[in-house]
Amino acid sequence: MMKTILIRLTVVAAFIIGTVCICSMLITEEAITVLTLLTALYFVRFLVRTALYVFFTLVRWLCIIALLGLLFCSLF
């Protein structure tokens, strides 16, 4: 799972850099600012979603382990 997250993160970063470079050659400075803000927003949204996914996956596994521990403690 972590390999695909790193690959997706690299692809998104490359997309952002490429978008800014191409736009800087074609469009005015105001449009570049707007596009940069939009791509940064999408990048931050992706990072937050990825971090929350990893966090809640860890919490889920910790809860499962805790419940199994409680079950085994009550049996013995």
Describe the structure.
Keywords: Membrane, Transmembrane, Transmembrane helix. The chain crosses the membrane at residues 12-44, 50-73. With 76 residues, the chain is mainly α. The protein has one domain (2-75). 95% of the residues lie in helices and 0% in strands. The chain has two helices and no strands. It has helices at residues 2-26, 29-75. Helix 1 (2-26) packs antiparallel against helix 2. The longest helix is centred in the C-terminal third of the chain and has 47 residues, at 29-75. The protein is rod-shaped.
Percentage of residues in DSSP E strands: under 5%
C-alpha Rg, in Å?
A: 21 Å
Topology, number of strands: 0
- Poorly predicted residue ranges: none
Which oligomerization state do the chains in this entry correspond to?
A: single chain
Overall average pLDDT: 85
Q: Given the structure, what is the number of helices?
A: 2
SSE blueprint and pairings:
Layout: H1 2-26, H2 29-75
Summarize, please:
Keywords: Membrane, Transmembrane, Transmembrane helix. The chain is mainly α and 76 residues long.
